[in-house]
Amino acid sequence: MSIALAGRLPGLFEDEHEALRESFARFLAERVTAETYAGWGEPDGAGVPPSFFAAAAEHGFVAMAIPEEHGGSGVEDPRFGAVLVEAAMHAGLPAVALALGQHNDVCVPALLSCAQDPVLLTRLAGGRSLTALAGPGALTARRSGDVWVLDGSCPAVLGGVHADVLVVIADAGEHAHAFVIDAEVGGLTRAPGVARFGLQAADFADVVLDGVRVPAQRCLGPDTAESVLVGQRLTLAVAAVAGARAALDWTVQYVHERRAFGQPLAAFENTRITLGDVAAELTATSAFVDSCLLAHAAGALGAATAAAAKLRATELQARAVDAGVQLHGGYGYMSEYPIARAYADARMLRMFGGSSEHLRAVIAQAAGV
Fold first, then answer.
1. For residues 135 and 156, is the Cβ–Cβ distance under 8 A?
2. Distance CA 111, CA 309 (A)
3. Beta strands 131-134 and 165-171, pairing class
4. N or C end of the chain: which has fewer CB within 10 A?
5. Are 89 and 313 a contacting pair, CB within 8 Å?
6. What does each C-alpha distance from 271 to 178, 222, 235, 266, 277 come to in angstroms?
7. What is the rounded distance in angstroms from the CA atom of residue 37 to the CA atom of residue 52?
8. pLDDT digits (tens, 9 = 90+) for 202-222
9. Cα dihedral sign, 41-23-339-132
C-alpha cells in the first residue's frame, strides 16, 4: 500500500536499477536469515561480518565505483547504491543497509578522489578490504612539515571493527579536512562499542587517534570532506525513508489482520487518520530525497540540502515507527515483531551522521541565520 503512495519521482530508477534491486533482494533472502542477522547482533557477533561483503562482491554489490580494471564495475551513479540500501531496509536489515551504503556510496568515492594503491582498489572491489568513516567531531588535524598529525576520539564509528582503511574528517582550523589512514597505523586504537538499544548487528567501534601521522598526499582536503558528509547524509536519508516505508507497510498489514470490537483495526477512524498522516509525509519526503539523489548524480547536491534531507527523513522515520508501535498495541513492544526492532533502530539515525540539532544549525547557517 505505501509503495503506491511513496511519491517516487517518475523515471528516477531505470530498468537496470530495478534489476539490481531485485537481484540484491534475492541475495539477502538467501544469505541473511533472521537467525543469521540476530547472530550478528549477539555480544560476540561483531556486527555484519567481512564474509558478507566478500559474498556480496561476488555478485557485484560492493564498491561498484571501482574502475573495471581493478575488478569493479566503474559505476558512479548513486542510484545503484540507493536501491541496495532500500532493499536491505525493506528486508528489515538496517545494519546491512547502513554498512553497505557507507562503504559503497561514501568511503569508496572518497578514496577514488585521489591516487590509490591498485592492490587496495582490487581488494575493495572484491570485498576483501573494508572501510569506515570517522568524524566529524572531536578530531583535530595540524600540519607538521610534510605530514599531518591527527588527534582525538570518535565514538560509534560504523564499520570501525572490521575496517582496513578509514576515511577521517578532522578539524584542521578554518575548515574540516578529509584524510585516508590505515586502520593499523601507529597511534590509532579501536574497541567494539558497548551494547546498544538498537542496531545490534551494526559494526560500531570507538576510535581514538593519538598523534597519528598522515602523509600530506593522503590529505584529501576540505572539498572532499564536504562531499563525504553530503554523501553520508544522503545515504542516511535514503535509508530512513525506506525504513519509514517498511514501517508503514508492516503496520498497514497488521491493522488489516488485527481485529477489535468485531472489526479490523483498519476500519477505525483513528487508524486511518494516523496512517494517512504518515503516508502523506512519506509521499512528500520521499519525493524530496529522490530529487536529492538526482542532484547528487549530477554533482549538484549542496551541504545544506543534504542536511535537510537527512533531517526530514530521519524525523519521518521516527514518526512512522512510533505510529506503528502504537497501532500494534502490546505486540509493538515485543522484539519478535519487526516494528519493535525498527523503533529501536530508528532512534540511532537521528544522532548518527549529524544529530537533528546539528543539522538544523547547518541549515540555519545556510539560510543566513
1. no
2. 24
3. parallel
4. C
5. no
6. 47, 48, 31, 6, 10
7. 11
8. 999 999 999 999 999 999 999
9. positive
Per-residue cell: 30: 538467501
In a domain, 306, yes or no: yes
Distance CA(180)–CA(166), nearest Å, equals 6
| Distance, CA of 201 to CA of 43 (rounded, Å) | 10
Interval 211-268: pLDDT, tens: 999 999 999 999 999 999 999 999 999 999 999 999 999 999 999 999 999 999 999 9
Name residue, grid cell 551513479. Answer: 77
Which residue shows C-alpha cell 543469521? Answer: 36
- Which structural domain range is residue 88 located in? 15-125
Residue 189 lies in a domain: yes
Q: Do 168 and 252 fall within a single domain?
A: no
Rounded to the nearest 10°, the torsion over CA 40, 332, 98, 135 is -100
Task: Centre a 10 Å sphere on the Cβ of residue 126 and count the other Cβ atoms it contains.
Answer: 18
One domain, residues 227 and 344 = yes
Task: List CB contacts of 102: < 8 A, sequence separation 6 or more.
Answer: 131, 132, 133, 158, 159, 232, 235
Domain tally, the chain: 3
Cα 128 to Cα 165: distance, rounded to the nearest angstrom? 11
Q: Which amino acid is at 63?
A: A
Reduced to 3 states, what is the DSSP secondary structure of residue 306? helix
Q: Is 283 helix (H, G, I), strand (E, B) or coil?
A: helix
Given CA atoms 229, 231, 233, 235 in this order, what sign does their dihedral have? negative
Q: Are 46 and 198 in contact (CB under 8 A)?
A: no
Cell of 45: 557477533
Handedness of CA 41, 47, 48, 49 (dihedral sign): negative
Q: How many CA atoms lie within 13 Å of 113's alpha carbon, on the beta-carbon side?
A: 22
Do residues 109 and 211 share a domain?
A: no
Q: What Rg, from alpha-carbon coordinates, does the chain have?
A: 20
